[in-house]
Amino acid sequence: MANALLSIQIIPKTKNGEDVIPYVDKAIAVIAKSGVPYQVNPLETTMEGDLAHLFSIVEEMNQVMIENGSPSVISQIKVLYQPSGASMDKLTEKYRP
């Protein structure tokens, strides 16, 4: 059972002011490859899983940004850590029609 939700907004610096969307697409691909449940939203992506694993995904996302030419990266994250279990669906079920 997942014990954490982690939302991330990754903001890679680009060399010449290029569009960041191709970088963000690569960051989301890292999440998809990890196999954790996730949801892409307009300003951030939320993942569900074990806290340590989620942080390792964040680390890999940052590394991929650098490997693809970004000289630096800002990652804004929010974490819900709940050892008894954390779920995106459970947290938002009352807001769904």
TrEMBL record:
Cited InterPro entries: MTH1187/YkoF-like, Thiamine_BP, UPF0045_domain
Domain Thiamine-binding protein: 7-95
A GO cellular-component term linked to this record: cytosol
Superkingdom of this protein's organism: Bacteria
Pfam families according to UniProt: Thiamine_BP (PF01910)
Family: Belongs to the UPF0045 family.
Protein name: Thiamine-binding protein
